[in-house]
Structures are given as structure tokens and as C-alpha cells.
Design brief:
The chain is α/β, with parallel strands linked by helices. The chain has 2 domains: about 160 residues, Rossmann fold (3-Layer(aba) Sandwich), CATH 3.40.50.970; about 190 residues, 3-Layer(aba) Sandwich (Rossmann fold), CATH 3.40.50.970. The chain is built from 14 helices and 14 strands. Strands 2-1-3-4-6-5 form a 6-stranded parallel sheet, with helices on both faces. A 6-stranded parallel sheet has the order 8-7-9-10-14-13, sandwiched between helices. Helix 1 crosses helix 2, helix 3 packs parallel to helix 4 and helix 7 packs parallel to helix 13. The chain is elongated and about 65 Å long. It starts with a helix and ends with a helix. The protein binds thiamine diphosphate.
Length: about 375
């Protein structure tokens, strides 16, 4: 199915605003929305999926027309509260159409973080009182029209409707391509970070390719990755995991390697961290102004200010770097300080096509990490 054809159905349904957080299953859909260039649709990439439900509610109040909210099924967790407590028919009855990328569909091969979420995706929609249809590459134009007719009936009744999209549904059309203007290659920056911090710190890394690159680079440099905890799911929560560890033992150095999209998703963590001010915490934000891991869609934020936000929240030491030399100097400087620090690293939109994935199960990774951490504690 062509995403452009799908978008024509969206337009026929009277929807003029599209908001959400990108997903690789929806890559072609997201590209088509970006290529529209705000002509047929107003488009917003929101901080998280729940925020998109908020935005859709406001648009409906002001314009009386429903919005489309797109999300990976992981984002269902983020929409549950505004869906149940604002949009649901027993509360305000706000119509909206969800387009949900189905990762971890039972019977398909996918990453461990999608296994459970994939299994309960349809049940979750049912329990949230959202009628839905599932589409795939074989869905015909006529079937799609029928699905949109069903959706229209639900929306007219102040209810929500979800179209659950299986992997491979949308065929490749024209990709949305852009550059952010930065030069540092993320994988090289991560290697430099590992060289500086791996031997005396424990690293908590964010969802997506940052973790996959750290995993491979750690193996290449040190022959293992036991000091690396990869937050493979739960996007946006790596810094709170790292904070929990840093608060538990002030003698262990904790480094959180975050992404800009992930920080955006739960940015309140910066204010919380600043209040706790763990002295043994280095927060590194790898900023490419995009959700690179799922197709490089720009985030809803205008670029290079996470270090400024962190400073305004109360981080004691913050800096922004654009080159390898600046990064090395910032790492040396941060390691000599005993204060909550942030290094924001501006990187280009790049990743290797042959980038691998963790070989062990998530549980095994967690056990190896804990073993290394507690072994380190015994030796200290
Ligand atoms: C709640 C939730 N929504 C969406 C996703 C899909 N997702 C995985 S990685 C990623 C992009 C992360 O962007 P960023 O933190 O900027 O790192 P980058 O990929 O650019 O290195 C997204 C949107 C997810 N895993 N969880």
C-alpha cells in the first residue's frame, strides 16, 4: 500500500492535523507526511505520544475536526492516561484516529522489548474501548475505504478508532531526506566516550541505535559490554534508571548516554535530576535533532539547547560540543569534577547499514550488568 494513498483517505475523513512520534514500521507514512510539507496537513512531532493526544484534544475543541495520532505500539503506554481520562466517551468524548505501528506481532521475529507489548497490543485497544482494524501489505484499496467508513462512524460518535499497521504494509515511495548540518559521526563519538569512561564507570544508554553502537564499540574496544545497561525499551527513562543507580551508591560513577528524542520524551527528568544533583552522574546527550533510529524524522524541538535547559534546571556543569577534540576535552573536564554534569554532543544523521543487535537476551544483559556492578563493588 502506498502511504500517499492512505493519506488521501485520511484527508477524505476530514482530518487536517497529524501528530505523533515516529516509528520504523510507519517510516514510509512518516516520510509521506513530512514530504507533504504542511500543505494538506498540519503536522507536529510531539515530545511523546500522550502529548499528541493532548494536542489532538485541543485541535478538536478549536476546530471541531478530529486529528490523526500516529505512534509505535510502545507509545500506547504513553497515551493510556490522556486516552482514559480525557478522550474516552465516559469523559469528554474526543474523536481521534490512531495509526499504530505493530512491532512484536506474535509469530514475527522482532527485538525483545517488543515481545510483550506486541502480544497485548490489540487487547490494550479493546480494554481502552478503542475499535480497531489491522492492515498489512495485502489490504486492498476497497478494504481500506471500508475501514475508514468504520472509523468515521466511531469518530462521529465522539469515540476513537485505531488502524494497526503490520510490518511491511507501506511500500517504499519517496524518502524524506534532510541534513542537520553537524559533522561528528555518532558511532565515533560513542567510541570516544567509551574510551574515556568505560573502565571506571557504569553506563546506562538509551533506546535505539545509540545502545546498539555502544554495544558493538564496547565489544570492539574491551572485548565485552558488561558495564553497559541498554534501555532497549521504555524510551526516555534511561536518565531515571541512571539516577536510581547514582543515588544508591555515590562511590560508583554513572554515565547516562541519552538521545535528544528520548530526553524530549520525558524532559521533566532533567529538573528532577538537578534537584537530586548526584555528584557521580554524567549525562551525555547525543543530539542529532532527529529520531534517527526509526528513520531520521526531525524531533519537535529546534536543535541545540539541551545543555542550556539542563543548566536552567540546575545542572552544575554543562557544555555543548561539536568536534572530537571538544568532546575529548569535555570528558576529561567532567571526569575531574564532582558534580552533576551534562555534555551535549551534536552529531550528524548517520548510522551503519550493517549495525548489529545485542546477541544475548535482555534478561541475560541485565544479569551480566548486575554481576559486573556488584563484583566491582566487592573489589572497591
Ligand atoms: C514510547 C516509544 N515511542 C517510540 C519509540 C520508537 N523509537 C525507538 S528509538 C526512537 C528514536 C530515538 O531518538 P533519539 O533519542 O533522538 O535517538 P537517535 O535515534 O536519534 O539516536 C524512537 C522514536 C519507542 N521505542 N518508544
Amino acid at each position: 500500500m502506498k502511504a500517499s494513498v492512505f493519506l488521501q483517505e485520511v484527508k477524505k475523513a476530514g482530518i487536517r492535523t497529524i501528530a505523533g512520534v515516529p516509528d520504523s514500521t510507519l517510516k514510509q507514512f512518516c516520510d509521506a507526511v513530512c514530504l507533504d510539507g504542511q500543505k494538506q496537513f498540519r503536522h507536529y512531532v510531539t515530545a511523546n505520544e500522550g502529548a499528541a493526544v493532548g494536542l489532538a484534544t485541543g485541535v478538536y475543541l478549536a476546530e471541531k475536526s478530529p486529528c490523526l495520532v500516529y505512534l509505535q505500539n510502545s507509545g500506547l503506554g504513553n497515551i493510556i492516561n490522556p486516552l482514559a481520562s480525557i478522550a474516552n466517551g465516559e469523559v469528554y468524548g474526543i474523536p481521534m484516529l490512531f495509526v499504530v505501528g505493530w512491532r512484536g506481532e506474535p509469530g514475527t521475529k522482532d527485538e525483545p522489548q517488543h515481545a510483550y507489548q506486541g502480544k497485548v497490543t490489540c487487547e490494550l485497544l479493546e480494554v481502552m474501548d478503542v475499535a480497531y482494524a489491522v492492515i498489512d501489505a495485502a489490504t486492498t484499496g476497497q478494504q481500506l475505504e471500508e475501514i475508514f467508513a468504520q472509523a468515521a462512524r466511531q469518530l462521529a460518535d465522539g469515540r476513537q478508532y485505531a488502524i494497526v499497521v503490520k510490518k511491511g504494509t507501506f511500500e517504499k515511495e519517496c524518502a524524506f531526506v534532510w541534513e542537520n548540518g553537524y559533522e561528528l559521526v555518532r558511532e565515533q563519538a560513542l567510541r570516544t566516550i567509551l574510551e574515556q569512561v568505560y573502565s571506571d564507570s557504569y553506563i546506562v544508554s538509551t533506546t535505539g541505535k545509540i545502545s546498539r553502537e555502544l554495544y558493538e564499540q564496547s565489544d570492539a574496544l574491551f572485548g565485552g559490554h558488561d558495564r553497559l545497561f541498554m534501555t532497549v525499551g521504555g524510551m526516555g527513562h534511561a536518565s531515571m534508571i541512571a539516577c536510581g543507580m547514582a543515588q544508591a551508591d555515590e562511590h560508583r560513577k554513572i554515565v547516562c548516554v541519552d538521545g535528544d528524542g528520548a530526553v524530549m520524551m520525558h524532559m521533566g527528568a532533567l529538573a528532577f535530576l538537578a534537584k537530586q544533583a548526584p555528584k557521580n552522574f554524567l549525562h551525555i546527550v547525543i543530539n542529532n535533532a532527529a529520531h534517527e533510529s526509526v528513520g531520521s524524522m526531525p524531533t519537535g524541538y529546534s536543535g541545540q539547547t539541551f545543555s542550556q535547559v539542563a543548566a536552567a534546571c540546575g545542572y552544575q556543569n554543562t557544555c555543548l560540543v561539536r568536534t572530537e577534540e571538544e568532546l575529548k576535552a569535555a570528558l576529561v573536564d567532567a571526569s575531574g569534577r564532582q558534580e552533576l554534569s551534562m555534555i551535549e554532543v551534536m552529531v550528524r544523521l548517520d548510522s551503519r547499514a550493517d549495525l548489529g543487535r545485542p546477541k544475548e537476551s535482555a534478561r541475560q544483559n541485565r544479569m551480566d550488568f548486575m554481576e559486573a556492578y556488584h563484583q566491582g563493588k566487592r573489589e572497591a
